[in-house]
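A note from the maintainers: we've had questions about how concatenated examples are separated. There is no special marker in the raw files; a new sequence line simply starts the next protein. For clarity in this README we add a label.
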Amino acid sequence: MLKPREAVRSLKSYHPPLGNRQGLRLDFNENTLGCSPRVMQKLRELDFEQLARYPDREPLEAKVASHLGIRPEELLLTNGTDEAIHLVCETFLEPGDEAIIVVPTFAMYEIYAAATGAKVIAVPAGEEFRFPLDNVLAHVNTHTRLVAIANPNNPTGTLASRKDLLTIAEHAPNAALLIDEAYFEFCGETLIPEFRKFPNLFVSRTFSKAYGLAGLRIGVLAGHPEQIHFVRPVSSPYNVNSVALACLPDALADQAYIRQYVDEVRCGRDRLERELQEWGVRYWPSHANFVLMYFGSQAKSFISTMRERGILVRDRSGDRGCAGCVRITLGSETQTNQMLAALREAFEEIGIGQKVGG
């Protein structure tokens, strides 16, 4: 009887709670307004011939490299950040190797690393989800071949310092250090192009969040050219589809749209955090487009009450150290107004906290 590899048989599965998602979708960290109008216009202009041809990503890699201020040979376009993670794991991990992740974090680091047969070492975040540099360094050994870190982290929104991350790169020269900057636009801090000093460093980016292109699946893996040279053949030559490649130049060109959206999200993030503080609700200051908050035993009631008001929020109780936690994505100013109005009603109905002066 045909059997899959042992690593695959014991692999965890990632099951996003898609299902019925009617309402304002503040549960998946997506761009809540969608992509630039310029991208929509490009979609309308696509013809049959463009869809019939195999995609050619290299010309677009030069455009993206220019946008990032690096050279084309220092990056690879990928099928979203997920493929970037997958490619690093497939390129550098073998059975018996060790991969370090800091939990709670994005589930796919563990899944892709474990699929290679490597042992995944889950290092818990520090108090208040602070980055546990000393504990990470303590777990680095001769078997360590990957350290994967989301920065800012999902679902906590916390940020590891540049100094801490480069310390890991220096301390673990034989391990690939993957820094996932999916939420870069909302914090502005990056390790590009530090990989010129640290050849074991990789940085991934995505056009799914601020750019609103999650459905087109396009991302970036950047790194030292000698290392990208080894990653490239592991990737399919047609990994990024023609529609995504056709739309990407217009998405990059409309930076005014991105800045406007990011500004509204960051303003909404500040407003939500102030609101939570006024109600006495525990939360963790965020550097991303979402905020994680703690409701304890009232978490599920809060989620269902918000849904009744047309607002979808995400239960993160299944993440390590996040029991009773809920994550809310921020969107436009209008959407933030709608969300905050529903949140206040939900707090009063359930009896969560008590607003200062209320």
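[label: protein 2]
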Amino acid sequence: MNFLLTGINHKSTPLEVRERFAIPEAQLPGAVQRFVQQPGVREALIVSTCNRVEFLAHTTNGTTDLSGFLAEYFGSRVEEFRKYAYEYREKDAIRHVFRVASSLDSLVVGEPQILGQIKEAYAVARAMGTISSQLDALLTRAFAVAKKIRSETAVGASAVSVASIAVDLAKKIFGSLHGRTVFLVGAGKMSELAARYLLAQGAGSILVANRTYERAVRLAQKFNGEAAPFEQLYDVAGKADIVITSTGAPHCIFRKEHGEKFLHQRRNRPMFFIDIAVPRDVDSAVNDLDGIFVYDIDDLQAVVSSNLADRAEEARRAEALVEDEVERFIARLQTADVVPTIVSLQEHLETLRQAEIDRVRGRLGELTPDQEMAIEALSRGIINKIMHTPIVTLKSAAREGQPTKVVDIVRRLFNLREHGARREAPEDSECKSAGAEK
């Protein structure tokens, strides 16, 4: 298998640390290309979201150390990354990938966004040529497992996303969202989702700002809203009751002095910031101002806890499904290691059987259909009995994770070539009876 995964997430790492290691979307292709060039790394994938940064690899021997890549990529910050990082290998790595894709490791268990984010990371890796057979099989199966869990359990019922939690918080602060002005800073998918929830709850006008003005216009048009140039960010923000910000800025764009200005413009009417960006868009000092409420990603945990109890039993069912799928996937991988030898053995013995029948057919004279069937059944039965023990032994060795030695013995005993190589039918009876080729 040789799977290796290391990373940090919302469980292991505070937000102020996670935001220092978030990889912007535009930098992901270059990062995964550098990753796959590391010694011992055959295939590579990087997932970077607001709640996790993870590096997944298929390695040459399973003992590859990713420290060199992390040190090269993060520089002087690598020790801080290692302080919070977790690492999974082989079966544990498979289980973790399945759990993450199925939203069992998410801040909000059952939320659907993480699956889409992993698929996007998968698409980037494929476009960069850093994924081939092994990671492709793992990720494809992870997507299938996520779909199975969503269809066979209720873990995603009434799915709660970060955006919907943000809207719930807004309702608690304002009581009603009817007529409230909403300012979306950043025109990404999370902002669009938040806008849909807000409008469904009675929000009034929608304002949108984005560094790319055209994207802001497109999003605003979807909701009959109004786009604002990013240069007018601070002039527009003061008009909003609710600001949901999710830019990819490397530093805070809303600071305490901005908050003071907004309160003055609003004559101290309350204002609500929900910062779902990593790194954060809103300086924590803004929360110190009376009349301004700021929630970031980690603050959402309090709201999440209220729905976890209802989902606990479904989550346990989902975890059991994951364990079953992990075992199935490992079994398929292990069996795949011996399949070429089994196929080669079957083809070799079938060649011997056909050659032997052809050799003696002239001495048997004309045969009736029943006699032909009897010879066919007899010869196939003998071949099946010959194949039974080596096949069982090969599959058993695969399950135990050590098929290489048995594969080598079987190939030597039957003088098998690599699967797919052309094999000539033996010509003399001694070769046929010995089951070897000269």
